[in-house]
Structures are given as C-alpha cells and as structure tokens.
C-alpha cells in the first residue's frame, strides 16, 4: 500500500460554536461548513477548509481541520474530552484507493482495526486503527472520493 493524501486532521472540541469562532476570528478561516450531526458515529462535525480548497467537502486541494464534538452518551470521543477538557488533536485521516485492500494490509501488519468499515463524514468508507499500534496516533483510513469534480 502507498501513503495517500492527508485528508484531514481531527480536532476534538468541547464546544463546537466556540471552536468555529476561534477558527474564524483567530485563525482567519473563511470556509467553515455548518456543523452537522452524525449520531451513528457519536459526533457533531464541522470542516474548516484550508486554502486552495474549492470549498466542497472531500474535494482535492488542501487538508481540512475536522472539528468533532461529542454527541450522545456513547460518543467514542467522550473519554478523550474527559481527559483533555480543552480538546485537542484527536486523529489523522489518510486517503486510500481501496478501503478493503487497506483493511487487509493493516490486518496483515498486525494492526488493530477499531470496529467495522463504515461511512464517514465525507460519505466514503472509513475505518480506524488503534493509536497504540500507530505510534500513539489514532489513525483513520478513508477511501478517497472517486467522483470527478
Ligand atoms: C466518522 C466520522 C468522522 C470522519 O472523519 O468521518 C470522524 O473521524 S469521527 C472521530 C470519532 N470516532 C472515533 O474516534 C472512532 C475510533 N475511536 C475509538 O474507538 C476510541 O476513541 C479509542 C478506542 C481510540 C479510544 O477510546 P477511549 O478513549 O474510550 O479508550 P481508552 O481511554 O481506554 O484509550 C485507550 C488508550 O488510547 C489512548 N487514546 C485514546 N484516544 C486517543 C487518541 N485520539 N489519540 C491517541 N491516543 C488515544 C488513551 O490515552 C489510552 O492510552 P493509555 O496509555 O492506556 O491511557
Ligand atoms: Co475523521
């Protein structure tokens, strides 16, 4: 498998609106999506587009900041926010051509895959790899969008 594009950096936040105001007012971001809920993933999500982005989700261009706020009692990031009340860098997401081939690759490497492959915030299949197997970094693998833009 070859290293793919860094699609986004996941940043866990305790307060989505405060985080959006920070990226807009402190960091000067101009392309921030409206937050949307992903109850099946236990998060509220918003994307901060870095420059050279056409502005549509998942399109080619720069890397996004993916703001994630816990949603619901069983959010997988509740523990992270409990340990890091101010929030912080949560995961990195890399793109692959074929999610199933990537699953086989990491499994063969003895890396723990967290749960089933499911549809992520960009509408393509994703899975997560345990941070303890990935240099301490929670790692998301995402099949890149094959739509032509
Ligand atoms: C899917 C929508 C969207 C997208 O891009 O499409 C997203 O990315 S949503 C992102 C939120 N969803 C997930 O993160 C799913 C995968 N994550 C998990 O299953 C859990 O968060 C897990 C298992 C990584 C950690 O769960 P939890 O914190 O409840 O467990 P522990 O406290 O026992 O943690 C075990 C061990 O790992 C360390 N840890 C936890 N989170 C992270 C992290 N983000 N980065 C690095 N290390 C992490 C934690 O400190 C523990 O270490 P220890 O030394 O044992 O204390
Ligand atoms: Co993500």
UniProtKB/TrEMBL annotation:
Sections of the chain in a coiled coil: none
Keywords for this protein: Isomerase, Metal-binding
GO biological process: L-methylmalonyl-CoA metabolic process
EC numbers on record: 5.1.99.1
InterPro entries per UniProt: Glyas_Bleomycin-R_OHBP_Dase (IPR029068), MeMalonyl-CoA_epimerase (IPR017515), MMCE/EMCE_epimerase (IPR051785), VOC_core (IPR037523)
Top-level taxon in the UniProt lineage: Bacteria
Keyword Metal-binding assigned: yes
Keyword Isomerase listed: yes
Pfam families, sorted: Glyoxalase_4
PROSITE patterns membership: VOC
Protein family according to the UniProt entry: Belongs to the methylmalonyl-CoA epimerase family.
Protein name: Methylmalonyl-CoA/ethylmalonyl-CoA epimerase
